[in-house]
Amino acid sequence: MTRKTLTEEEIKSKYNSISECLAICYIQSKRILEDAEILNMDTKPIKEDLACFTQEFMQLCM
């Protein structure tokens, strides 16, 4: 099944939504890590998961 190609307006709208989502994800990730450190939690698994996601996203953008 073939998907419909997005229009220029749809691309711009979706890009703006993704940009906002990434900004929110960054802020929430930073807060989670800060709070985890305050609670003396092991942040290594969280950081590894975030790094993996970031790496995958960066490859998509290259």
Number of strands: 0
Radius of gyration: 16 Å
Largest sheet: none
Low-confidence stretches: none
Q: In percent, how much strand structure appears in the residues?
A: under 5%
> Mean pLDDT, as a whole number?
93
Give the overall silhouette. elongated
Number of H- or I-type helical stretches: 2
Estimate the helix proportion, in percent. Answer: over 70%
For the terminal residues, how far apart are their CA atoms?
27 Å
Order of SSEs = HH
- Secondary-structure-based class equals mainly alpha
How would you name the oligomeric state of the polypeptide chains in this document?
single chain
Task: Tell me about this structure.
- The protein is an all-alpha fold and 62 residues long.
- The chain is 79% helix and 0% strand.
- It is built from 2 helices and no strands.
- It is elongated, with a radius of gyration of 16 Å.
- The model has no long low-confidence stretch (mean pLDDT 93).
Short description:
The chain has 62 residues and is mostly helical.
Itemize the secondary structure elements and their pairings.
Blueprint lengths: L7 H31 L5 H18 L1
List descriptors.
62 residues; mainly alpha; 79% helix
